Amino acid sequence: MLLAVFSMFLQQIINGLTVGSVYALIALGYTMVYGILGLINFAHGEIYMIGAYLGVIFFGIFTALGLTATNLPLSIVLTFLLAIVYSSAYGYTIERVAYRPLRHAPRLSPLITALGISIFLQNYVMLSQGAKDKVFPSLISGGVSIGNATVSYLQLIIMLTSLILMTALHFFITKTRLGTAMRATAQDKKMASLLGINVDSVISATFVIGSGLAAAGGVMIAMHYGLINFYMGYVAGLKAFTAAVLGGIGNIPGAMFGGILLGLVESFGAGYISAEYKDVFAFAILILVLIFKPSGLLGESLQEKV
Amino acid sequence: MPKVSYWKVISALTLTVFVFLGCKKGGEPVSDVIKIGTAGPMTGDQSAFGQDQQNGVRLAVEEWNMKGGVLGKKIELLVGDDQHDPKQAVSVANKMVNDGIAGLVGHFNSSCSLPASRIYNDQKIPMITHGSTNPQLTEQNFKGVFRACGRDDQQGMKAALFVIDDMKAKSVAILHDKTTYGQGLADEFRKGVEGKVKVTYHGGITQGDKDFSAVLTNVKTGNPDLIYFGGVYPEGGLLVKQARALGIKAPLMGGDGVISEEFLNIAGADAEGTYVTFAPDVNNIPSAKAFVDTYTKKYGKPGPYSVYAYVAANVLLQGIKDSNSTEGEKISEAVHKMKYEGALGSIEFDDKGDVKVSPYVIWQVKGGKWEQITK
Predict the structure, then answer these.
(1) Cβ A8–B218 below 8 Å, yes or no?
(2) Do B220 and A16 touch (CB under 8 A)?
(3) N or C terminus of chain B: which is more exposed, having fewer CB within 10 Å?
(4) pTM, whole model, 2 decimals?
(5) Consecutive sets of 10 residues in chain A, 306 residues long: mean pLDDT of each?
């Protein structure tokens, strides 16, 4: 009996970590863009969706070329990388087309174009790929059993890949020149440009990186659930945005922490209290955090910029 | 007070009058075609059902038009997309009414048919659903609401009897998708097994969600012999797949919402062994052979509900012909009286609008294909 209780607990942790690490990957894009532009990029969820679609498309191409049959791991890795690169290009283009021309416009204008881009991308994918669900073949089956709990290999891959990507991002932000430039731009755009930082290209880089991370999440989710559709970005984007706010929007470790926390809360809420209210737990915890710590769990209280 | 010029007031009034006149006119047939509508989930994750429906109705309309239409007029088909969203269904229904349809085939989802039926009923427009199985629909005492398929109380009972008598299951877990259809069906199933089989879990999931691992972990702790699911194939497919990944061996059993080729695509090899309650295999019904052949030639293999949409459209058009009218009340009256001989054999409707005979049988996935396993 004790073993069963413990197994269930462990299983819920595994479930929560899997979903949470994907939320974290998407949340990073929200938080990075917000940190620099003060803009909620509502089109970000769609990038995640496009990443998933590109995964299916590239994998389909490799299957047609016969690479899948001869070298499955290579084709998966290539699918993954190509989807990330291609989605990053989407991210770059969106920023270039929809946000850069409005850089000095009132804050509400880019928010509206963000919503517009989101609707455009959803419909674009629906018209070009069809309204039906797309099925991603199950490639990696099996898993490891711990007591009565099971971790599938795919779940392990998702958790590990997310961990690697997030660590890489952390080093990139703290140790490299571009990362330093990003932090400088986030602190004060005008001062950064006075010091010779090309603010526009820093912003582009932010979008490229954020989109790449979201696409990585998209491809992994497509592999994990095996089912994608054109509106999957909406709810995922909303959840990831919640995660970013939970951790303190604009704060990078906060987004990672918020994502994992959100995944765990959902998983435990659905498992132990009621699955019917799964989404309610996510947003209830958001409200609680906003009441008691409006800047988010890891966010610093904002100072008015004078 | 701001000054309002008279011409603005007058033109505003004139326009309003035009709008009212326009509404009045819209209700009456003025053209030389007879319009009928069909509405269902044409896009979105349940679009496989919507397309089957549209093709079935279209085939019926084309056949009638080839024979010269009905009442000497050509038939025009209007297609509405409710995206299995009840709010959308209401606006589609309003649009259909404004477009002046003589009758409607649909909607598909019970959660859409219920609110939409009120709108059609207000205008006395007959509606024949080909797939909404929730009992409530025909319990509203609406004269113009018909159902060409069975009801969930019959379906849930059939499933319960199979689980008790044939599978001899000792325990079940019951899941549903919180929709009118899914929850209703799960409740009917529970009524049937109550007291005879132990229910280890009973709970809802969210339609459109992709991750059910948390709730399935809970189901696993109860170690049931069977998981019963009231819902539709996208969630059904993911449920069985994720259950296997968690090491749950118990088979899944669903209602008619699960039987779809898409279910097999989504669940892949894990689909094997899944049970479903549905009507008998259309390929084994002699009267449906002509339908299956033409449909296959035109649109490919018929979906599970194609033939129901086809028959429902035929019943509606026959009703128009029998009543020699496009007035809703007269058509409904004719459909109530009708004994229709068609692709599904003989069909008659009772006072509520349900079919008098609606046999449910058990299907199972065998070798990657749906197969009827009981008579």
Answers:
(1) yes
(2) no
(3) N
(4) 0.82
(5) 83 93 95 91 94 94 89 92 95 93 89 93 89 82 83 93 95 94 92 92 95 96 90 91 91 93 92 85 88 85 48
Which chain A residues are within 8 Å of B245, Cβ to Cβ?
A: 141, 143, 150, 152
Four-residue CA torsion sign, A138, A282, A42, B112: positive
Q: Given an 8 Å threshold on Cβ–Cβ distance, is A131 in contact with B220?
A: no
> What is residue A302's predicted lDDT score, i.e. its pLDDT?
53
Per CB-CB distance under 8 Å, the chain A contacts of B247 are 145, 148, 150
CB B162 within 8 A of CB B194: no
CB contact under 8 A, A271 and B217: yes
B196-246 pLDDT tens trace: 999 999 999 998 888 999 999 999 989 999 999 999 999 999 999 999 989
Element (H, E) at A56: helix A44-65
Q: Closest Cα to residue B71, out of B21, B29, B34?
A: B34
Q: Supply the ipTM of this predicted assembly.
A: 0.81
Report how far residue A24's alpha carbon sits from residue A254's, in angstroms, rounded to the nearest whole number: 9
User: CA–CA separation, B338 vs A137, rounded Å?
Assistant: 48
Q: Which residues of chain B have a CB within 8 Å of the CB of A137?
A: 268
- Tell me, letter by letter, the H, E, C secondary structure of chain B: CCCCCHHHHHHHHHHHHHHHHHHHHHHCCCCCEEEEEEEECCCCCCHHHHHHHHHHHHHHHHHHHHCCCECCEEEEEEEEECCCCHHHHHHHHHHHHHCCCCEEEECCCHHHHHHHHHHHHHCCCCEEECCCCCHHHHHCCCCCEEECCCCHHHHHHHHHHHHHHHCCCCEEEEEECCCHHHHHHHHHHHHHHCCCCEEEEEEECCCCCCCCHHHHHHHHHHCCCEEEEECCHHHHHHHHHHHHHCCCCCCEEECCCCCCHHHHHHHHHHHCCCEEEECCCHHHCHHHHHHHHHHHHHHCCCCCCHHHHHHHHHHHHHHHHHHCCCCHHHHHHHHHHCEEEECCEEEEECCCCCECCCCCEEEEEECCEEEECCC
Owner of token pair 């008659």: B348
CB contacts, 8 Å: A142 with chain B? none
Using alpha carbons, select from A223, A248, A235 the residue that is nearest to residue A282.
A235
> What pLDDT does residue B356 have?
87
Per-residue model confidence as pLDDT tens digits over A2-23: 777 888 899 999 999 999 999 9
